[in-house]
Amino acid sequence: MRTVGIDLGGTKIMAVLVENGEVLAKVKRPTPTVGGPDAVIAAMVAVARKVDPAGSAAGVGIGAPGPVVPGSGVLPAAPNLPGWGHDVDVVGRVSAALEGRPVKLDNDVNVGTLAEWKLGAGRGVDDLLGVFAGTGVGAGLVLDGRIRQGPRGLAGEIGHTFVAFDQFHDAPVGRGELEDYTGRRSLQRWVDVASPAESAFMRSLMHKGRLKSKAWAEGVEAEDPLTLRLVGRAASALSAAIASAITLIDVERVVLGGGFAERLGEPFRQRVEAEVAARAFAGQTAPVVAARLGDTGGALGAALLLEHT
Predict the structure, then answer these.
(1) CA distances (Å), 118 to each of 126, 297, 301, 309, in order?
(2) Is 203 domain-assigned?
(3) How many domains does one find in the chain?
(4) Separation of alpha carbons 218 and 39, rounded Å
(5) Global pTM?
(6) Same domain for 149 and 203?
(7) What is the reported pLDDT for 182?
(8) CATH number at residue 29
(9) 67 vs 235 pLDDT, higher one
């Protein structure tokens, strides 16, 4: 069966044509910055048609940022998408524009986890946690051989679990959630509140006011003290959340991906894995392995929605 998968991101939309787990074609374009949901839906329809001009796909899967209520086909307000401030029936509108072809929608991290489970680093287990550290931190769950979404689509939102209990009201950044310590957005906020002298090196690496993942890797390589402290704390916060998840749901393996984690590479993964093992309850840990599918994983997982949900 051929299917189209669309990875809807805040900066780009990627579509792939997939058959038997193999990517036959790939198309990407920038996410519209004006026009709100109408422009974004039109762009998704356009990339679906371009990647599959013959209309050979049996259906279309979409991975989108934000919690998606299972079975609703609706993407609620999505802060990463300009002008998307209300619930939108994505499935209904995309299907209608594509001559009624079946369309399925899920959270982008859920579909990334689905792809790693079926085709990547998570193959061979029935209970898997996929963690993706990029701008923020998201995660997806496979339990008993099925993607677990939860009744409100919140299953796997590890970035919003608490890793600090005493900073809820007076933390300089956030409330003590994992995302307050791990991911590009929060780490840059810690740079912003640091003294000018302490943060001078990282500020010098900003591009248009932003610190990309590459900058954090450069800071680590240069052994900049602030970078080492923040990245070390990011690894520790991530390991605390993962160790808690392993104890709570007893997963067999953890797949670690996302642009931030992948750019920091094997030393970051090894540190997270070691700290997870050190925090293990009753000595029962789980291996933390690197994601294998890269930036096509989200679109590939979206294509798999037609087969596995």
Answers:
(1) 10, 11, 9, 13
(2) yes
(3) 2
(4) 37
(5) 0.93
(6) yes
(7) 95
(8) 3.30.420.40
(9) 235
